[in-house]
Amino acid sequence: MSTQSDTVVRKGLSPRKRAQRSRLIQYAVLVAVALFALFSADWGQIGSVFFKPEFIKSTFQDGVLQALVKTLEYTAGAFVIGLAGGTVLALMRLSSVGPYRWLATAYIEFFRGLPAIVVFIAFSLLPLAFEGMTIPWDPYGVVWLALGIVAAAYMAEVIRAGIQAVPKGQIEAARSLGMPPGLALRKIVLPQAFRIVLPPLTNDLILLVKDSSLVFMIGVAADGYELTGFGRDLANTYSNLTPIVVCGFCYLIITLPLGILVRRLEARAEKSR
């Protein structure tokens, strides 16, 4: 009898009520975890280690805004190099010439498989391997090349997908009108491809902002510090983690608006379909 009554009760719950009950259980678990964290944490210790007011003030006075500008400069240059290189690599991947495809594939697979920090270390050792070698606009040139080379490998696959998403009928129509292939590529294919891949390219830009934190690997001078290097140096000076927390919030100032932009671009793309 009890088994039959349980079966009736289970059958009596609609899918909507089951979903509501599941959500209520999840909310209750989240509230319990939040309350446990709230009452078990040592807020005095957290404040003195991560949010000490005098160190927050000192971090701004010592030049965190200049480090923020450096981060933007490093990111912008690397993005331009990555976008240009990624476009060339994407076209090589789609080329009918075999060696172009092989070279592009080897480059993409190699640099997508390497951690970015390895590339930074390799660039920092280039003057030792090639005596007298210098990269222009140091440290910008080194940072832009190191980040841009890695970014190009990722952007190439994004751009290739965008090019392949352009309807082939438009290319055939352009050629039937006598438009040369190169002109059709510049005037028809690439503008539409970049419009399609704009959201994922913005995601790549966000990743570049965070990867710029690897600049400390090449040993730049204090006036070339980006946010992470600046925060790490001040944290060592003060023996406190507050400067790193301040720099972390500065990264959010950059990445959160970009994330909102990505969502809006994706929403606009969905509406246009």
TrEMBL record:
Query: What's one GO MF term for it?
Result: transmembrane transporter activity
**Entry-linked SUPFAM superfamilies:** MetI-like (SSF161098)
Q: Which family does it belong to?
A: Belongs to the binding-protein-dependent transport system permease family. HisMQ subfamily.
- What's the protein name? Amino acid ABC transporter permease
The organism's superkingdom is given as Bacteria
Among NCBIfam families, the record links this protein to:
HEQRo_perm_3TM
InterPro entries, per database record? AA_ABC_transptr_permease_3TM, ArtM/GltK/GlnP/TcyL/YhdX-like, MetI-like, MetI-like_sf
Predominantly, its location class is: membrane
Where would you find this protein in the cell? Cell membrane
Membrane disposition:
Multi-pass membrane protein
Origin organism lineage: Bacteria, Bacillati, Actinomycetota, Actinomycetes, Propionibacteriales
